Amino acid sequence: MSNAPSLAIRLFGTEEPVTPLRILKAGALTAELDTGNLRHIRYAGVEVIRAVSFIVRDKNWGTYNPAIENLVVDERADGFTVTYDAIALDGTQAFRYAARIEGSADGSLDFSAEGYAETPFLTNRTGFVVLHPIAGVSGRPVTIEHVDGTIVESRFPEIIDPVQPMMNLRALTHEASPGLRVTCRMEGDTYEMEDQRNWTDASYKTYVRPLALPWPYTLQKDEHIQQAVRVTIEGSLAEQGDGAGAGTIALGERIGTVPPLGLGLDPSEIVETIAEAETLSRVGARVLVGYYDPSLGHDAATLIGIVEAARAIGAEPWLEAVVQSVDGFEAEIATLGWTVADMGSPFPTVLLSPLPDLKCTLPGSVWPPAPPPRALFEAARKAFPRARIGGGMFSLFTEMNRKRPPVDLLDLVSFTTTAMLHAGDDHSITEGLETLPAIALSASAIAGDKPYAVGPSAIGMRMNPYGEAPLKNPGNIRQAMNFNDPRHRGLLGAAWALGFFARFAAGGATTITLGGTTGAFGLVSVRHDWPQPYFDEAGGVFPMFHVLRGMARLAGKPLRAVTAPDTIEAIAAETGDGVELWLANRTGTEQSVVLPGAPRSLFLLDADSFVAAAGDRDALDHLNQPFSGTTLTLAPYAVARLILS
Questions:
Q1: pTM score of the predicted model
Q2: Inter-residue contact 636 to 588 (CB < 8 Å)
Q3: Which pLDDT does position 3 carry in this prediction?
């Protein structure tokens, strides 16, 4: 019998240590110091700026992890000062810079940086990036000062902007809370804004160097950069309530029905999926979305394997087909249609995407040659007359938002997401759940009167629109753009999955496809060429297995609105046995909540039950226990299911 895994493995799937963030304080002003940059800048507890970072990126948009030297932190009653030197380098180039951060109790914060290229330095971006939060900011007014000094009144977008909602920026002023006015002035270059909710980042990102300029670009040897971000806070918070509702779960009205669960299938997992079918069938997924891309060697045998795997786990097979040809796309689609027809037309839903659309085309860039969208889907309709035809993007919502499909020719709009494109830390992954209601709203606006489906989605990245491929991660670490990310196997992954499903269910998705079967995004432990601590020895199922099994059981049940603290993910549905309420703590600290009624039973997935749940496919039933309390305390990343009378 294997020894019990460490707490780190149970929570995060990795032993990689995390350096605790240092909290800087100056009166009511606080900020988190994270590897030389600032996160979660707050005033009197209200988040005013999500992050200010000086970053150095390579020609592939990869962000250097700079080596920091001579770090000095001076904290006083009325302020703080941080200084350090840093160098970003690889085997071919180096950029060195010095930074200074000053915060004052009067509500001012300055972050300046000056640097130079030690060698010719090829980069896509070197300079400051500022993140504004979305909670309490989305759709709200903002005063824009442009580089030429003109002042314009505008709003942060509510529907996700596909490109850049604000350009030629020098300063932004917004109200972080009633009575609290925040100005962020950005100096040393021309700044512009992206709506980062496009990539499930919970922020609006303002950055240096407009994307319309050529990139990558070269900083010549000894070329200097000098930039600064200056934040000022004016006013005071409006009178706050007594906080009586804090920590309380409340049930609301019916808001639809719980959508069916889907799983993704990479063809490399077909054999193992069939071998593990008895376990995977217990999840109860209604749909298995099989990926088919002839450029990867997929053929008619692949199509047969997808159908066999779907039938083995009791799911309906969907086909994601990548169209290779530009000039001969009609013949290619027709041939695929004949092949599928010879199989008995087993795919009730067929999703199609041209191969060029698997890669990103940034704003200002020329779109690569691709089949005309309308002609492509007209050909698909002829080739698959008995199937629902879907389109959108196989990569990310971002790309669908930028290149929208001809919805009138489709039966279904679809897209996927990743939780870790720009940042790979734990907090960014769970914080990204805040963006999903906006993605749901935006997807619904694009789809119009057509349904939309989301997935296959996971914490990790199944394809990389911005580079050659996702990162293989043999070291089992936290990093952006991971393919096999360790947190998928931990309690954090289970809590994230609950939040993902809950938020898209409330947002009207007709099918939610999460994860996969046996691979990097799978639910069942199978040996691979990447490390899976504890599971490589003990085997079993990941915590997410039980959460998705619970979601699958609720399919078609009346969905109830749930109000919860912002640290808690929640979904509730009416069943024949009462109201089934699922809660997840998406933070690394203990959270207590007041329940909306008298529960009869509790299933608790946490660090204490991790081993038992990993070894029991039916833990959802076997670990159920009587519970009649009015308050529930959830350990870090714990997930609970309660049955309310």
A1: 0.92
A2: yes
A3: 76
